[in-house]
Amino acid sequence: MKPTSAKKAPTVKPSQQPTPKKTPSSGSWLGFLFKPYNLLFGLIAIMFLVWCNKNVSSYNWVYNGLLKDGYKYCGDVQKEINNRTRSVSDPVKKLQIAYDTKLEAKVGTEFMVLKMIRDNTPPNAIILFPPPLVMTQTTSYLTLRYEITMKPYASYFLYPRTVVYEQEKGKNPFYEKAQYIFLLHGWGYDHLDYVHQQQSPVEILPLHKTQTK
Amino acid sequence: MIILGIALSMLLGVSIMLAISTKFTLLEYLSYSFPLGIGTQTFLMSILDWSNIGITRWGITIFSLIVIAACLLKAFQNLKKDPEFFNRCSLKHFKLPKPNIAWILFILLILWFEGMNFYKTVYFPTFDTDGIRGFTFAGMAIAAEGTLKGLSLFTSPNYNFQGNAGLSSYAPFAQLAYGYAFLFGATVSKVVNALMFLSLLGIFYSLLKRVTTHTAAAFFTFMMMITPEMLAFSALSGINVLHTVFASSGLLLAVLWFYKKDPKLLILSAIMLAINCLTRNEGIVFSGMASLLVAYRFFTKDINWKKSLLFFVTAFFGFIYWNIFLKANHIHSGSDLIIMKLFWDSDKIATMYRELKPLYLNTQYYGIGVVTFGLLLLLNIWNIIRKGDQVALIVATLGVMILYTIVIYQINYVFDSIENVLRYSYKRFLFSFIPLMWFYIASNGITMWVTKKTDNLLYRK
User: Fold this and answer.
1) For the purposes of burial, counting CB atoms within 10 Å of the CB of B114, is it exposed (0-12), middle (13-18) or buried (19 or more)?
2) Alpha-carbon gap: A106 to the closest alpha carbon of chain B (Å)
3) When comparing pLDDT for A30 and B306, which is higher?
4) Which domain does A64 fall in, by range?
């Protein structure tokens, strides 16, 4: 940019500038909005959005699937939380129910099974899990996704409890220290050092008789 | 309590910005405050851990207050030189840009879409597999155990998180940031992801405002924002969108400095790139590209060697620091993953070409962004050759794409197949190129001509 001082000074006598008349649109938002080019470009913008929505299916998905349905789903889950917490007065318990309901909605069966284990073991528990083939077995009453066979995945929901898998026998020092066992599809009853009468397809039990009351 | 934690991070970010300069816009102070603040917090947390003080809420608070005080001391020196600062920032002088229907429409759409996205991000706890078995799990354990170097996930014989492609091979930003959120009482660590994506929108809009009109800035910010795969991932706990915030803004700031030679942009760029290297190890690709731009300006004598050297060291600082941290604390990070010598493998190249071509052209993942970028590059070829139109931005954008593809090529695929890495990891890594591409789409010669003409017509008396 050239410095202004370098410019030649005007020689003509400066005439008195008429005070600008205030047009209805100047300085006013509403007046400006209805100018023809403004309306035209607004219309072009809307047409472009309609074109995107109709011709690029992923943009349609962004609005209808990802955002609108996603937002609505939050509302549905919140209704369920409100139902479940209606009779609960303890705020900590309310928070826990809300947290669990959200994870039930998003993670599904795997979380519900792990929640059952969490609620029935102390925080310092070491829990023995079945091998992957048993865990992912398809049955009429329960099918779990392979993610549950990943130690970090199961450990996240059970932390600070320690998760040990059956296939780690002889490799992981925590295996020998396990106090609880996740019994699944009939697997694991032979690990108990006591007889358990009522067998269930999905259960969490202490491994040793001394731990039972 | 989490509100206090977020406020502390934002205060830290703003004080860093004020220490750099008092000449940023209000939107820039607001948009960069959280990414800068939380990035610095994670660095401070690692120092607390390394010095055996431990990662605790009080430790973090006191340490960050000391850093804020130091930054404000420098900020006061800057403020003395800029007495108009408070006038500029006062609400009395706050002015909205001249309105037009298109600008209002796109700003409302950004607010509406981001409102829904923000809500659903913070509403649900982490539910994506990568977050559950990796970043959020580590964050939760850091908050509970107060350490990173002695984390049970790294040290207990029950876990095998060290080694190739294990958790320790990931740079620590996300884990520590989630740990920070949990320490300050958050039940959902995704508040970090939600605020980072919100910041990205503000940063991108303010970067565009430096080169184009406010109407174009709103339009292209909206287009960048609705990139389908990126928007979907912004609601998850993965690190790709977090990486995108630091990588793209760091590089774009370097490009803007390249043209405008404004030192505050370069300092901010260096810090964003430093945090970027703490977010993903591949972040060095962006630091490398920005360093090339600085090196060019060094050879054209637009910047002295001291400042250039300081930029290089800062831009790579996160990478250097994290590697020293791992070595000093005997954490194995899976360094065997990268083949250090160059080699030729035609099968691998053919596989990469076969996988990447449909990926780049996939409008399901990236909307019309990549295709429009390619078309505008072709249409602008005359401007590029004759006038050097946005050459630095093109070199930076294509450069990081090529460098990253080379990094992918140099990986020893013992942990997964190359096809899987290209289909899933590369797909997500491409997010960090998206703001760069949209920035070019918005600022190239043809678009700028159209934008200026539009503005002339819109505001014609």
Assistant:
1) buried
2) 6
3) B306
4) 31-79
Predicted local distance difference test score (pLDDT) of residue B159: 80
CA distance, residue B149 to nearest chain A CA (Å): 18
pTM as predicted: 0.91
Q: Is residue A59 situated within a structural domain?
A: yes
Residue A22 within a domain? no
CA distance B126 to A112: 15
Of B105, B133, B232, which has the smallest distance from its Cβ to A150's Cβ? B133
A133 and A51 assigned to the same domain: no
Span B357-416, pLDDT tens digits: 888 888 889 999 999 999 999 999 998 999 888 999 999 999 999 999 998 898 888 777
What average pLDDT score do residues B251-280 get? Answer: 96
The residues that bridge with A164 in the sheet, in sequence order, are A128
ipTM of the complex: 0.88
Query: Exposure of B160 by Cβ count < 10 A (0-12 exposed, 13-18 middle, 19+ buried)?
Result: middle
Nearest CA in chain B to A39: B101
Closest-CA residue in chain A for B128? A107
Give the count of Cβ contacts less than 8 A between chain A and B.
126
Residues A125 and A198 in one domain: yes
Between CA B298 and CA B296 the distance in angstroms is 5
Is the residue at A92 inside a domain?
A: no
pLDDT band (50, 70, 90) for residue B164:
low
Closest residue of chain A to B232, computed from CA coordinates: A66
pLDDT above 70: percentage of residues in chain B: 97
For residue A56, how many C-alpha atoms fall within 13 Å in the half-sphere facing its CB? 23
A207 shares its domain with A128: yes
Interchain proximity B144–A73, CB inside 8 Å? no
Give B419-431 pLDDT, tens digit per residue.
Answer: 888 888 888 889 9
CB within 8 Å: B102 and A99: no
Min CA distance, B367 vs chain A (Å)?
Answer: 6
Q: Which residue of A has its CA nearest to B454?
A: A41
Across the range B204-213, mean pLDDT stands at 96
Cβ atoms B215, B454 nearer than 8 A: yes
The answer as to whether A114 is a domain residue is no
Answer whether A153 sits within 8 Å of B132, measured CB to CB: yes
Residues A125, A176: one domain? yes
Q: Residue B17: what pLDDT? A: 96
CB contact under 8 A, A147 and B129: yes
Asked whether B452 and B438 are in contact (CB, 8 A), the reply is no
Which of residues A23, A52, A79 is at a domain's end? Answer: A79
- pLDDT per position as a tens digit, A115-158: 999 999 999 999 999 999 999 998 888 889 999 999 999 999 99
Which of B99, B127, B133 shows the shortest C-beta gap to A106? B127
A67 touches chain B (CB under 8 A): yes
Mean residue pLDDT across chain B: 91
Measured between its terminal Cα atoms, the distance across chain B in Å is 52
Cα–Cα dist B319/B313, whole Å: 10
Number of domains observed in the structure of chain A: 2
Asked if the Cβ–Cβ distance from A33 to B187 is below 8 Å, we say: no
